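Review form for a predicted model. The reviewer records the input and the model, then writes brief findings.
Reviewer: anonymous (R2)
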Amino acid sequence: MKVLFVASGNSFDGVSTIVKAQGDSFNGTEVNLSFYPIQGKGLIGYIKNAFLLKKFLNKNTFDVIHAHYSLSGIVASLAGAKPLVVSLMGSDVKSNYLNKWLIFGFYWLNWKKTVVKTSDMKDNLGFKRIEIIPNGVDIVKFQALDTKECRKKLGWDGLKVNILFAANPERPEKNFKLTKEAVSLLSEKFNIVLHHFKNIPHIEIPIYLNASDVVILSSLWEGSPNVVKESMACNRPMVTTRVGDVEWLFGNTDGHYIAGFNPQEFANKIEEAIIFNNLHFKTKGRERILELELGSNSVSNKLINLYKKLK
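Model under review:
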């Protein structure tokens, strides 16, 4: 089965790590996968790429074209890609009115299937031709590693409480302000060092997660946050805001905490996570990921079954 992934090629590593990881999950399956990276930013830049993609599709045939994010779906639509599957992320559903209008318009035009990450996203869109398939996590790459060795590699002080803000603090939707305020409220109780992600190669993220006492995500919104699943696969205690599908992901697994947007409430949950880490060190998050069938191989099988229905 020949499948083409259409996605932005503008990220730090070219095609985003999320899209690449999903593509890698097809290794060893019946899917023969190719990538078409879209170069350029903004709606105008994407539209220009539609003509280039159309030329590419005139010379190459695929059983399924799978576009990732709404703008890539629009480009693929304008290029006449068929049959077309479009994966939407939380940022697409929470986008401005114009982008939402375009999503609805092109969905009715020629999106054969739309894939979203959560039931909330499905309800928000109200589409009929829609499937809920959260992104999976590579459970070989993301697993518990020796904490002391990971801290040594990063130069972190093991005598301090190492808290990881699992996002780029410069992205406003990640709400770094809440994390900073909450951590400052704990400064008299704990000797905390606050770390964060910024231009970190994806291959190094397991080291950062395993070096951390507690992993934090204080986003204003999310779809199905990949870093939550990655942290759980590494059995790390975690605190998040109530966004996306984190309540479903955590279930009743000890060592995982959800708080509102009040700094004191968030600080209280961080304190609980620190205490949990001191007592137990590891969670059973990995067991939960496997229970939910969110390993990347399980997710790739769901996508293959979806593709087969389109043929």
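Findings: The domain at 147-291 is CATH 3.40.50.2000 (Rossmann fold).
Further findings: Residues 42-59 form the longest helix (18 residues).
Recommendation: see findings above.
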